[in-house]
What does this fold into?
Amino acid sequence: MKTTTTILKKNFLQIVGFCLVAIYSANAQEGTTILPGTTFAGSADFYYKYDFAEVDNSKTSFTHSHDSYEIGMASIEASHKLEKASIFVDLGFGSRASEFTYNDSTNTFMIKQMYITYDFSPSFKVTAGSFGTHIGYELVDAVDNKNYSMSYAFTNGPFFNTGVKAQYTSGKYSFMAGVTNPTDFKTAARSKTNQKTFIGQIGYTTASGSAFLNFTTGSNNYNRNLGANTNSAFDVNKTQFDFVGSRKLNTNLTLGFNGTYAMFKDDNNSDLDKNWFSLVGYLNYAFKGKWSVAYRLEYFDNKDGAIDIDEAKSSIIGNTLSFNYKEGNFTFIPEVRFDSSSEDIFSKKDGSAASSSAYVLLATTYSF
It folds into this structure.
C-alpha cells in the first residue's frame, strides 16, 4: 500500500506537470502566463546548531538538532486580488513546515496557509480558509523574526486556525472575531470532534507602535498540551488570553512584549484543571550600517504541569541574543541561547539531568 508521503509527492508532481502544460499552452495561444493581479514571493532558511551538552536540549520549536547543518523551510507564496475578492496561498517545504502543521500526515511538504478574503467595504472584510494564529509576537517564517530560535510562548501557543473570521477597522482600531475548527487542525474529521474554537482580537495601531488583545477558546486538541494524568485531549477545553505590544522609541531602538495565559479545564475532573503563562520581552537595536542586535528574555511558568515537558512541573527563564547582518534580502544570524529551569529538564554530556542548557547557532535567511 502506498504511503501518504508517496501519494502526496506523486500528486504534487502531477500538479506541477499540469501547471507547466497550462503555462506552455497559454504562451502558445495567448502570449501570457500570469493572470493580471497575481504576485509571487517566498523565503528560505538554513542553520547550524551546536549544543554544549553535545545532545539536542531544545524544548522549543524548529531547532531540534545538534552539531548538524539543517534546512529549515522553503516557502512559496502566491496571491491574487480582483476587485473585492482576493486569495492567498502559502506552501512550506522542510522540517519547519512539517512541525508547524504537526496534525497533518508526516511529510515535508505542507499547505501552511490558504485563505480567501472578500472586502465588503474598505473597513469590513471576511476571510475563510486556513490562516496563521493571531496569538503571540513571533511568526512561523524565520525571515519574519529577529531571533532565529523560538520562544516557549510560541511553541506552546496555537499555530494556526481553519475556519471563518471577520474584521472591522476604524481608524487606528481593529476588531476581529471568528469560528474555526479545533486549533491546529485543517479538517475537523482528523480532529475527531465537531466542537469549534472561537477566536477574537482588539487592536490599536499607530506609526510608532501597536497593541493587540487576543483571545481563543475551544476544545483542546493535542496531548502535548496536557499533563500526564489527563483523561483525553477532548475532555479538556483551553482558553487563552494574550497581549502583544510593540513600541519604536527612536530610529534605532524598538521594544516588544508578549504576555500570554492559557487555562485548561477538564470536563470530567476539576482537580485536573491547569494553566501556564509566559512573559516575553523583546529588544531590537539597529546599529549604523547593516548590523542589528535582538535580545529576548522570557519567563515561562509551567508549575501546574499543564505542558508535558519531560513530565516536569517547572518554570524556565530563557535568554536569547541574536545578531542580524542584513545585505539586501539576505540576513546572517549568529545566535547564543541560555535557558535555566527550576527542575532538571535538560541533559548533560554524560546523560544525567541538568537544570540549564546552552547552545550557539548560525543561521541564514533569504526572501524574494
